[in-house]
DNA sequence: GCCGTTTTCGGCCCGACTGTTTTCAGTCG
């Protein structure tokens, strides 16, 4: 999949155009880049199949950008972009990442101080050359110095698994502080928004929204910026403040009055693309939509704003869950009352992937069972690693048999159904890591690839398809093998994998580990089209991991999954119908 | 450069905050 790579190229080009004060084109390029990034299919494949015509079908991609993409795919570069790059300082795109530096200021820095890279900029700051420049001052120089520091510390995105608990922590700390300072104000409407509320796999900044009457807003802001977690206050106003917490992440707080709370929640939740589309609908219907509310164009009167529900309703749309707001067709579906009824946390009845001390888990079988039972699960599968996974203390057959015995004993003591299982290595040739007579004794077989990633797409596809054709395999674990921020998915033809899985009635895992989230939202969306079923599994290595269910659930919802699509929402009596060995 | 129930040209989201300047430009989301 080269979509991200091509999107990057377009973003970079947009930055350079911006620097050269070219109007509107940067916006067009960024829009195209964003759509390519979110495009479900590999656009290289689209180009191979349908040529340039296929590329222009992508929203935001017209004749010209399609030409550039084609050139890039054919030759590995774009002549025009190279030319453009040659005219801009070498570090332009990097410098544009410095908070507070936009195209105009950068141009000035390049023209008057010959600043071309971040290290040039650092130099200019330390020798105080910046503050003497017209339009700059002492304050800007200090801010830029700090911005460079922040850029160097962490300019990468925060994984959902880190951002979500962090946001909850900050909100809870803020509430505690406010209860002490101003005990009589309503604290029920403080919520995280942005890509975090949409449960995207990684988050840039954490955005928090709070409702408060005007007279209470100041006090709330003061409480926020003086939280002990705050490392640096970037800006502070009556309605918006921006801080960087000690861990290095940016957090924004916005405060709005009650009559605008719903509109602000809608607006700040995004996505940007979803909102632009929504605004267009508002305009067509004779309204104007902003973060303050929905207003009648003629009278200027507010017609909605207290709640999101009210806004969607007035626009003739069903309420759209945050996870769907990516402008991937949800608005059209909402207009036709054809939105999916998304799978919910309460629907989940079990967890089909977890480890114990038998392989690389940290806890005993009993500890895992106790915790799962406390979570009111109806069933779990114990999936310790198979024998060839030496590094993860994979189980020899004898060890596994001992585990079966313990499972049997536990089954007498606990109400919950405990399934015999294993995360079985899919070997290089696509065969499974235990002989058939062992596999058939397992209730569920979870197959996974853990090694030998660096093979051709054909080879990896063949390996996985062979495994999917094995009658003993039930679930394909973390199907893409990616590790967020560390390792790309291995080269594999997902079309063929999904086809084989569908033909053989196999279940696709949505792995909840924050570093995996695999399948991701786009692949889930694609896989659903093949009629596949999924399981949302934590791949727990300790009891604390059992709660990471919500991260995978978020991806499932982002992939438009309904309860029926997810087999671990089924009661055990129905689950038995899904897996062959349980059925027989 | 893209796009179209305001359609093949002329728009393209828009409001808050900061710093520098003294009424506003630049940046951000």
Automatic annotation (TrEMBL):
This is DNA polymerase beta. GO terms for biological process: DNA repair. Residues 1-326 form the DNA-directed DNA polymerase X domain. It catalyses: a 5'-end 2'-deoxyribose-2'-deoxyribonucleotide-DNA = (2E,4S)-4-hydroxypenten-2-al-5-phosphate + a 5'-end 5'-phospho-2'-deoxyribonucleoside-DNA + H(+); DNA(n) + a 2'-deoxyribonucleoside 5'-triphosphate = DNA(n+1) + diphosphate; 2'-deoxyribonucleotide-(2'-deoxyribose 5'-phosphate)-2'-deoxyribonucleotide-DNA = a 3'-end 2'-deoxyribonucleotide-(2,3-dehydro-2,3-deoxyribose 5'-phosphate)-DNA + a 5'-end 5'-phospho-2'-deoxyribonucleoside-DNA + H(+). It comes from the Archaea. SMART domains: HhH1 (SM00278), POLIIIAc (SM00481), POLXc (SM00483). Residues 53-72, 93-112, 128-147 form the Helix-hairpin-helix DNA-binding motif class domain. Residues 350-409 form the Polymerase/histidinol phosphatase N-terminal domain. It is found in: Cytoplasm. Keywords: DNA damage, DNA repair, DNA replication, DNA synthesis, DNA-directed DNA polymerase, Methylation, Nucleotidyltransferase, Sodium, Transferase, Ubl conjugation. The keyword Nucleotidyltransferase applies. Repair polymerase that plays a key role in base-excision repair. During this process, the damaged base is excised by specific DNA glycosylases, the DNA backbone is nicked at the abasic site by an apurinic/apyrimidic (AP) endonuclease, and POLB removes 5'-deoxyribose-phosphate from the preincised AP site acting as a 5'-deoxyribose-phosphate lyase (5'-dRP lyase); through its DNA polymerase activity, it adds one nucleotide to the 3' end of the arising single-nucleotide gap.
